[in-house]
Amino acid sequence: MDYAATGQEALSRIAGASDLDTLEALRVEFLGKQGSISGLLKTLGKMSPDERKVEGPRIHGLRESVTEALTARKDALETAALDARLESETIDLSLPAPEQPRGSVHPVSQVMDELAEVFADMGFAVATGPEIEDDWHNFTALNMPESHPARAMHDTFYFPDRNEGGREMLLRTHTSPVQIRSMLDVVKHNPGGAPLRVIAPGRVYRSDSDATHTPMFHQIEGLVIDKGIHLGHLKWTLETFLKAFFERDDIVLRLRPSYFPFTEPSVEVDVGYAYEGGRRVVGGSGDAPGHAWMEVLGSGMVNRRVIEAGGLDPDEWQGFAFGTGVDRLAMLKYGMDDLRAFFDGDVRWLSHYGFSALDVPTLSGGVGTPA
Ligand code: PHE
Q: 105 vs 98, 349, 353, 370, CA distance in Å?
């Protein structure tokens, strides 16, 4: 029998199969249980040994070439299917980039990054605490017991329900509760205490709203705990910080005695400034001609009772703390005059006052180069 013609026909039909289903149907037709080539193989059993010697290799050869052709065609069809899929799922990376970069870093984020950079250089770590606080961390531990008049001055947002511990819950009115949390945390890891240098930037809330007050605003807290800390350390730290932040050497501070329940003594810090081109520019003494003083910070030596609430022995550990408004610092440095615009989300304001995401504040590169 002439298998060449059968083989030719099978191979050309396999080569012509245009999809995997057709190919599978051909495989069944030739090699399946009832397949034509399988049928030929069965005829070998009925042949005489001499006949089989001749026909055997030919039939097996036919089966082999058909099997190879099926495999080759299957590979080709699968490759073509993959190519088609890759073709249809490509992204055109050659699309032009937007002419103007969209989006910018908000001045509050920028100033917080600048502050973290300035303080990191002085060895301060960044600490955080919850915005939903309890009245013990926000007030009591900071030497403001329940009846303390200073509590009333904070215009606090309270939650209707107490927490599991029976404490009243509130939106923190300042970042000072992070002082307590940082001390408790350091004691947990170092019983007996350890030096501590942290800043705590974050959101705070007071029920207050006009051109210079928004119900949510940003503060940054600083806390240093160590042995033998005194007011001189506080003054040097604030002076170094303000000079680095405003990027000027002529920053002059005025320390005024003040009162905060959590510091004793307490000091309010003013900086000298003058009007230049219609806006406040810090620098020089507030007593110099054309200059005035402006309050920028609250600070003081950490009250003994606060150190105790933080789990430390005030005879062994002393410290200073300060707190200031991040939004106000941003306004002073970058010349905005309405606080409310900070939180309006107006794209025109954001693109005017925003910073490039690529312009990361560093001491070497300058902590605040406007976009
Ligand atoms: N927590 C004070 C405020 O919100 C600021 C402050 C912080 C003062 C630390 C002294 C020490 O006004």
A: 18, 12, 9, 10
Mean pLDDT of 276-293: 94
Q: How many residues does the chain have?
A: 371
Atom of ligand 1 nearest to the CA of 223: 9
Is 371's pLDDT higher than 60? Answer: no
Residue with the nearest Cα to atom 6 of ligand 1? 323
Contacts of residue 168, defined as CB under 8 A and 6 or more positions apart, other chains included, come to 134, 135, 158, 159, 162
* Preceding omega of 265 cis (within 30 degrees of 0): yes
323 CA to middle of ligand 1, Å?
4
Dist. CA 268 → ligand 1 center (Å): 9
Position in ligand 1 atom list of the atom nearest CA 174: 4
User: pLDDT tens across 251-270, in order?
Assistant: 999 999 999 999 999 999 99
**How many alpha carbons fall within 13 Å on the CB side of residue 194?**
11
As for ligand 1, residues whose beta carbon falls within 6 Å of it are 174, 176, 221, 260, 263, 298-300, 321-323
Whole-number mean pLDDT of the chain?
92
Q: Which fold has domain 107-353?
A: BirA Bifunctional Protein; domain 2 (3.30.930)
Domain boundaries, the chain: 3-88, 107-353
* 324 CA to centre of ligand 1 in angstroms: 7
- pLDDT tens for residues 52-61? 898 889 999 9
Phi, psi (rounded to 5 degrees) for 50: -65, -45
Q: Note the pLDDT tens digit of each residue in 199-254.
A: 999 999 999 888 788 999 999 999 999 999 999 999 999 999 999 999 999 999 99
Nearest residue to 168 via CA among 134, 139, 132? 134
